[in-house]
Amino acid sequence: MIKGKHRSWLFLPAHKHKFWKKITDLSPDVLVIDLEDSVFWNKKDSARLIFETQVKEYIPQKSIAVRINPLDSKWGPLDLSTSLNLGIVDIVLPKVKGAGDILRVHEFAKREGFDPQILNIIPIIETTQAFERFDEIATVEGVRAAIFGSEDLFAEFGLSSNRDSPLFKQIQVTLSLKAQKQKLMLIDCANPVYGPQYCAEFRKECVYSSEIAFKGKLAIHPNQIEVINSLFEINSFEAVASQLDKAWDLVNAMTTTEESVTILDDRFYSIPELRKALYRLAYLEKVAANNEYSDLKKCIVNILDRL
């Protein structure tokens, strides 16, 4: 999987020289070099060349992913080949319609002499087909995360992508539930606002995304990084430890008494809350990736078997 944290994913248009000069000063968890939508069609080839010559300097320092063009486009195969030959295996795949698009990436990698198992594929859910076939896409080997691509998806639906609309939130929640079911990391869509006057609106959006179990968010401007990182801080060890303590308090209280309802901090908790705490612990154990929690999953499975 992409190394390190995965809260903020900053898109950098590959053909913009001024952005390459600023990379060392940027602090996103993941830097996504964009060869697709932020590059006009007549600049695709030059963007790839700029990417190839510039990115080598930053690979050891940064967690880098690449959004290639679709493999069925004239640019996609060259984008993927260039990325693989540079040793970049975190591939953001746009315009996915089904599992077949992921499998074609595997097949291409094989033809290029690479083991498909080294790939971390992050499909963007931005077509109606991908939305409908999310479960199918999520279970393909090598899919490590998914990104909610709101603009293209809502354009296909013929609807406005107003983030405050009930329909927008319904689609977010639906995708989040699908991702939770498949135990797949889901990253929220970008928001084009980044000025100081939009800070409160952007913070509110990040809080909501985090609350409905998105694990990170796309950024299109450096001003958005700090807000995203602070509001998706679940990936820090300190935050993981804190949430582990809270969840364990509930697990201990309910499994000690062996009652279906317990009281903790002046609140009633029942079996559904216990299940939620256990699933939360399972996720936190995966995030922590620390030997200190190596026995956690076994304990959780044993408790769940009793419910």
Helix/strand structural class:
alpha/beta
With strands numbered from the N-terminus, the spatial order across the biggest sheet is 1-2-3-4-5-6-7-8
Q: Give the domain tally.
A: 2
Please summarize the sheet with the most strands: 8 strands, parallel, barrel
- CATH class of the largest domain, anyone? Alpha Beta
The overall pLDDT average reads: 84
Number of helical elements:
13
Order of helices and strands: EHEHEHEHEHHEHHEHEHHEEHH
- Strand content of the residues, in percent? 5-15%
Helix share bin? 40-55%
Total strand segments: 10
The fold-level CATH name of the largest domain is TIM Barrel
Low-pLDDT runs: 290-294
Provide the CATH superfamily of the largest domain: Phosphoenolpyruvate-binding domains
> At CATH's second level, what is the architecture of the largest domain?
Alpha-Beta Barrel
Radius of gyration: 21 Å
The outline comes out as globular
Distance between the termini: 32 Å
Description:
This protein folds into two domains: 8-234, Alpha-Beta Barrel (TIM Barrel), CATH 3.20.20.60; 237-306. It has 13 helices and ten strands. The chain is of the alpha/beta class and 307 residues long. The protein has helices at 17-20, 44-54, 76-85, 99-111, 128-132, 134-138, 150-157, 166-182, 199-211, 225-231, 237-257, 271-288, 296-306; strands at residues 8-13, 30-34, 64-67, 90-93, 120-125, 145-148, 185-188, 216-219, 261-263, 268-270.
